[in-house]
Amino acid sequence: MGLVTLADIRAAAALIAPVVVRTPLLRFDDRLSVKPENLQPVGAFKIRGAYHALARLSDEARARGVVAYSSGNHAQAVAFAAHAFGVPAVIVLPENAPAVKVAATRSWGAAVELVPMAERESRAHELVAERGATLIPPFDHPDVIAGQGTVGLEVVADQPDVEVVLAPVSGGGLISGVAAAVKALRPSARVVGVEPELAADAAASLRAGELVRWPAADRERTLADGLRAEPSELTFAHLRAHVDEIVTVSEEEIGAAMRRLVRDTRLVVEPSGAVAVAAYLRRAAEWPARTVAVVSGGNVDPEVLARVL
Amino acid sequence: MGLVTLADIRAAAALIAPVVVRTPLLRFDDRLSVKPENLQPVGAFKIRGAYHALARLSDEARARGVVAYSSGNHAQAVAFAAHAFGVPAVIVLPENAPAVKVAATRSWGAAVELVPMAERESRAHELVAERGATLIPPFDHPDVIAGQGTVGLEVVADQPDVEVVLAPVSGGGLISGVAAAVKALRPSARVVGVEPELAADAAASLRAGELVRWPAADRERTLADGLRAEPSELTFAHLRAHVDEIVTVSEEEIGAAMRRLVRDTRLVVEPSGAVAVAAYLRRAAEWPARTVAVVSGGNVDPEVLARVL
């Protein structure tokens, strides 16, 4: 299976530059810096992959519109990118998606359909068949992975001597792209994925050497609603090729990391966005001096935020 | 009275580059972008002026140490800069400074003295006399103003066609530097100061054409604890030369702006840091399409943050 290359990621960087925020690295403590992707236009790194995928569509394909299904942030990203390109979009969201994410998706002019978690994908494919629209998958596409990989390009540009990069794993698009970039530019750096203990299917898959499926009902237990997806064959191939380890974190550790990010770095972070910092804090003494954690998103319901303050 | 020049500010930019975060502009809505200075190492723009002032001290002066008095963020900035240069620091804080600011100042290794608000300045001068240390004033010094002015350089670099820059006014160091930079680089841009209605002494001074003093007890009424100082002759000269207008905002408007910043831009902002956005929201229809608001700081007690969510 062909993996995304550094050249693909560099090409993506050029295409997405007009809309993506060039996020700085922020010092968290003496050894950790964070990459605040919660500051992107849709509040998450997802804009990178989604905008890149739309940028590469033909005018003809754009005219027929796009469809996406997502646990939330990808939905907003496709809606934002579709708005930017003047393309009609239908977004299929799970019924339990946070209200803030549903509202934000609609705010970009996309049509939203709410369906049970397990029916998202099939409903999206129905819409594609009905309309001739293009499905923009949340992670299972080389253009999406290449877009997310620009996070890794920027990390190495800003910290060329980086030793460890920590990033969340859900469907695996972010870590696939980041790992492809980091390993190409700095082979000695370790790339470590992070999952909630309650949705640790990727860790189980890497241990088993093949994709291990967890029931959706199990993965839905975590508060980290952005980390309930599971890798595809394509992203799992990237994980096996490039990812050194996956660390799992508890729900309590996720809350504690959110609190620290709010207080110490003045970032509003969603549970999924805090897992990489949670993994750092879990064994802070073990990480080397130049560790970077990707803070992937900040779309959190205010009640959830208030609880962890 | 000599005003800070563009050349001074450019020289400051070179000196502070090693420690200051190059903050991006973040889109707030179709017309407003924000400059998130809450992402600086001490959670506020103050690191720019303080670090610059210490960078320009002789080795001999550094060996004798530094002293600062402040309503909070300047204290942390001097403590941080002193730590970076290996210089001993004593910080004089008002007794009512937020606990989070006191703790942060101490965390950088500085000695802290808590005194009544009105005695801060005299106690700092005593310490200078006793120790031969150098006073690093929060705003009344050209090196501090030049450091803060680097915010303006970056705004124009990132948005060369900017039409309005909104920035908070307290002692006036930030807006003096920002206005000097913006008016030199883009004379057609308007520079607008923002104050709480409860501490609107600078607005009164500009109307009167001379410094109008408000009793400290009046200025202490605002929740925006970073905006309780009043301009000096030096900063007032910059305001008269470069600032087009001062807008005042209510306490309610400050809270609403904090809430919008948390929800829409995922930034943790202190009340003082939100006033420029509050001024934008107060008369949103009037501002032109390319308006920038400086979000000056993010050191807020969690209880205050939870109240506005």
Task: Characterize the structure shown.
2 copies of one chain form a homodimer. Chain A is an alpha/beta fold and 309 residues long. The first copy, chain A, contains 14 helices and 10 strands. The first copy, chain A, has a 6-stranded mixed sheet, with helices on both faces. In chain A, helix 4 links the parallel strand 3 (66-69) and strand 4. In chain A, helix 2 (46-55) runs parallel beside helix 4 (73-85), helix 2 (46-55) packs across helix 7 (142-158) and helix 4 (73-85) runs parallel beside helix 5 (99-107). Chain A starts with 5 loop residues before the first helix and ends with a helix. Chains A, B: Keywords: Lyase, Pyridoxal phosphate.
List the helices and strands and how they pair.
The structure is a homodimer of 309-residue chains.
Chain A (H helix, E strand, L loop, with lengths): L5 H11 L9 E2 L4 E5 L9 H10 L3 H6 L1 E4 L3 H13 L3 E6 L4 H9 L3 E5 L4 H12 L2 E2 L6 H17 L5 E5 L4 H13 L4 E7 L4 H8 L7 H4 L13 H10 L2 E5 L1 H15 L5 H12 L8 E5 L6 H7 L1
Parallel strand pairs in A: 2-10, 3-4, 3-6, 4-5, 7-8, 7-10, 8-9
Antiparallel strand pairs in A: 1-2
